[in-house]
Amino acid sequence: MARKTHALIDLDALRANYALAKTHAGAADVIAVIKADAYGHGMVEVARALQNKATVFAVAFLDEALTLRENGIKEPILLLEGPMDRSEIAVARANNCWLMLHTPQHLAWLEPEDIATPNQIWFKLDTGMHRLGLSEDEFLDFWHRQNADLQSNLSDHCVLATHFAKADNDPDFTRQQLISFARVQVLTAMRTSYSNSPGLLIEQIFADIDLPSESFVRLGISLYGGTPDSLLHPVYTAALTPVMTVKAQVLAIRTIAAGEGVGYGQIWQAPTTTAIATVAIGYADGIPRFAANRMYVMFADIALPVVGRISMDMITVDVSAITEEVTVGDMLEVWGTQQRVEQVAQALETINYELLTRLSLRVPRFYSST
């Protein structure tokens, strides 16, 4: 019999999270961000589940987009990292992909015919993230070198975008980013995109900034039921439903005496007589090795501590609280509906994004939908 450890992907929850974002985004088009294999949820399956709901998808680079095309996905796809070389512009155009241009080199590659299709060319401004993006001076130098007709075409067909660096915990910094963005937008009159998942929650900080209604918002972690670090809009975030539930199988149960250790290095010793379950998931499946003695797994509504080192294929769990209930073959929840992935991430001093995307492909995904 195959190992039972798996991830259950709730496609109804996915669609509900998307619909919730749509209501919160007003008139803006909500782009479903499905890069990195849809944050570990399965890019093709997620895209199929959102067909006829999401009108645009976003991925990191062209290879991801071509995988979607090979699997029958027809909607426009935004390439968030833009073209890797000049030849990709033609390939992207041929495959109805929109390009995020973010370096002076990208601007040098741009030809007038590249802006003939609405929304196909996006310009990313670096307003404080300092990761990707054109500085205000770099973009304005490009803009002022264009003749009036080309400027008009850019305004009519292109999108101006930026990325918030601290939207989930620093409204003042985010406000300054948006003020910088507005200086360029008012000159170019382009459509706009600046909100990511946490950006959807902070409209109050820029209600008085002179910008048109946002044309596109980019829905990432919230699509999967994940919440930003700070619950800036608790009614919205409380309504998000976790899409992924990871469960792992109990392989063995043993009782060890007080003072005996568990696992490599014996870094944890039992304080009293303790029931230990060995569970079929480990760092090869995506559980961080540094989770030793820091995280919990769930049996119904009972939190059980992971004790001892994380092994490649297994973890060990103190099941003394449920000795009478747990048996070999039972499934324990690593994260999902009983324990949100954010709770696990907080215990490990990391973020939900990392845990979701590092889940190994050897953990099979099963999809549910009514």
What does this structure look like?
- One of its GO terms (biological process) is D-alanine biosynthetic process.
- The modification N6-(pyridoxal phosphate)lysine is found at residue 35.
- Its EC number is 5.1.1.1.
- One of its GO terms (molecular function) is pyridoxal phosphate binding.
- By secondary structure, the chain is of the alpha/beta class.
- It has two domains: 11-225, TIM Barrel (Alpha-Beta Barrel); 244-368, Lyase, Ornithine Decarboxylase, Chain A, domain 1 (Beta Barrel).
- It has twelve helices and 16 strands.
- Strands 8-7-6-5-4-3-2-9 form an eight-stranded parallel β-sheet. Strands 1, 10, 11, 14, 15 and 16 form a six-stranded mixed β-sheet that branches. Strands 12-13 form a two-stranded antiparallel ribbon.
- Helix 6 links the parallel strand 5 and strand 6.
- Helix 11 crosses helix 12 (352-358).
- The longest helix is centred in the middle third of the chain and has 18 residues, at 171-188.
- It is elongated, with a radius of gyration of 24 Å.
